[in-house]
Amino acid sequence: MLNVLNKVEEAIIALLLVAMTFLVFADVILRFVFNTGWLWSEELTLLLSAWLVLFGASYCVKTGSHIGVDAFVKLFPAAGRRFFTIIACLLSLCYCGLVLKGSWVYLSKMHKIGITLRDLPIPIWIADSVLIIGFVLIAIRVLVQLWYVITGKIDTFKHADEASESMEIVEELKRMEESA
């Protein structure tokens, strides 16, 4: 089930990125070469970027691409790291729940009112439904992390560690220079 979710999420992220790139490229060509353009392209680009951000946030939780501040947590043994990670997961789930509740109220009101986007004939509640979709995905990813911590597969979140990644690149470049 998670593998299907992973593939769908990655496909949607790729599709959103391609659509945004094409839309902006085409609009720039239309404006600067043909002195025309699409009135609705800016609004659609902003909408696509909002969808990309929330799908990307979920993907980053899955892959550990978020930068984490874990210097304090690393001071503890594995049991302490697991405890703090469980607390962080529970707090993250509470946050997702609050955003989901607020999103549901907002989208319900937009549906009831029937407002459409400014430049596109799309109801706002459909355009902004990514709030619920994105935060459900984030909650699923946090639940998976929580399960991994509880079952002992991990003891803390994976985080992007730019310093160690940079040092690995430096070491690799040194090895390449020495072998050349």
Structure description:
- It is a single chain.
- By secondary structure, this protein is mainly alpha-helical.
- Helix content is 74%, strand content 0%.
- The chain has six helices and no strands.
- The longest helix has 36 residues, at 78-113.
- It is flat and about 60 Å long.
Summary, kept brief:
By secondary structure, this protein is mostly helical. Helices cover 74% and strands 0% of the residues.
H-E order: HHHHHH
Largest sheet: none
What's the Cα radius of gyration? Answer: 21 Å
Determine the mean pLDDT: 90
Low-confidence stretches: none
Helix content: over 70%
Distance between the termini: 47 Å
Shape type? flat
Q: How many strand segments?
A: 0
Instruction: Name the beta content range.
Output: under 5%
Helical region count?
A: 6
| Assembly state | single chain
Structure classification: mainly alpha
Q: Which features would summarize this protein structure in a list?
A:
180 residues; mainly alpha; 6 helices
